[in-house]
């Protein structure tokens, strides 16, 4: 019986795709694999009706035939609890930043370590489901904002913006610090992505994404960069 979740693998290298599939099936996951991006979005959109249930996490290589993983991730439905992981042999800080900027939850470099891939996928699954229960309330208010943690909707004066899971995680962590400066290291640790968000400018990109979304509904900057120290969210006026 497969009861750990439903994983989609998109990898054009046959041996690697088989190895990843075997890794997750051996841990009681149901795996659906693709050799290219064709049909992936449609499958995930319709996975509600799949016998094994909706897809929990998609893991995709960046380099794929006909299309690429970056484009694929941008086409993913904005659906509750859908985790997105990119894998790539491109390991420079610029490549990581580009990968994370399309809204994925994690970026893992090849060659893949099977235990690391499994643990980071499980960590992502846990993070995607824990926050509404952990906060024990569906709506959080600060300043004149309201955050609907169930729908991941941030509102301000009748203006709304949808947050990604990792963006909401960041916002919740900063809110929990009650206006104190948060060091980069503790943010990375709290997000459970030490590898992805502690290297290069990846965390800066994540903060920038959240700041830009807040700016679409409020014209004052409440997410402050404290140079050499970390980040500060203004939680009260």
Proportion of residues in extended strands: 15-25%
* Helical proportion, percent range: 25-40%
Unreliably modeled segments = 131-136
Q: Determine the CATH topology of the largest domain.
A: Rossmann fold
The CATH class of the largest domain is Alpha Beta
Number of helices: 9
CATH architecture of the largest domain: 3-Layer(aba) Sandwich
Order of helices and strands: EHEHEHEHEHEEEEHHHHEE
Strand count: 11
End-to-end Cα distance, whole Å, is: 53 Å
Number of domains: 2
**Major sheet attributes:** 5 strands, parallel
Q: Round the mean pLDDT to the nearest integer and report it.
A: 85
- For the largest sheet, list the strands in their spatial order: 2-1-3-4-5
CA radius of gyration:
18 Å
CATH superfamily of the largest domain: Response regulator
Descriptive overview:
By secondary structure, this protein is α/β, with parallel strands linked by helices. The chain has two domains: 6-130, 3-Layer(aba) Sandwich (Rossmann fold), CATH 3.40.50; 137-233, Winged helix-like DNA-binding domain superfamily/Winged helix DNA-binding domain (Arc Repressor Mutant, subunit A), CATH 1.10.10.10. The protein is 39% helix and 21% strand. The strands form three sheets. Strands 2-1-3-4-5 form a five-stranded parallel beta sheet, sandwiched between helices. Strands 6-7-8-9 form a four-stranded antiparallel beta sheet, with no helix packed on it. Strands 10-11 form a two-stranded antiparallel ribbon. Helix 1 links the parallel strand 1 (6-10) and strand 2 (30-34). Helix 6 (165-176) crosses helix 9 (202-215). The chain is globular. 29% of the residues are buried. The model is unreliable at 131-136 (pLDDT under 50).
């Amino acid at each position: 019986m497969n009861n750990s979740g439903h994983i989609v693998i998109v990898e054009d290298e046959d041996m690697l795709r088989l190895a990843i599939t075997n890794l997750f099936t051996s841990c009681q996951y149901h795996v659906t694999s693709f050799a290219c991006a064709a049909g992936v979005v449609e499958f995930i959109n319709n996975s509600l009706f799949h016998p094994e249930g909706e897809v929990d996490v998609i893991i995709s290589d960046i380099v794929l035939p006909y299309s690429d993983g970056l484009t694929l991730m941008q086409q993913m439905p904005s659906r509750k609890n859908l985790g997105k992981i990119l894998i790539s042999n491109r390991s420079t800080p610029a490549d990581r930043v580009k990968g994370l900027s399309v809204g994925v939850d994690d970026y893992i470099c090849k060659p893949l370590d099977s235990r690391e891939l499994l643990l980071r996928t499980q960590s992502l699954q846990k993070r995607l489901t824990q926050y509404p229960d952990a906060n024990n309330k569906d709506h959080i208010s600060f300043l004149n904002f309201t955050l609907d943690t169930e729908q991941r909707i941030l509102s301000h004066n009748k203006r709304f913006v949808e947050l990604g899971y990792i963006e909401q995680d960041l916002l919740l962590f900063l809110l929990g610090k009650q206006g104190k400066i948060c060091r980069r290291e503790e943010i990375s640790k709290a997000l459970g992505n030490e590898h992805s968000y502690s290297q290069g400018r990846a965390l800066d990109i994540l903060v920038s994404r959240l700041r830009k979304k807040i700016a679409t509904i409020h014209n004052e900057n409440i997410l402050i960069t404290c140079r050499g120290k970390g980040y500060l969210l203004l939680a009260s006026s």
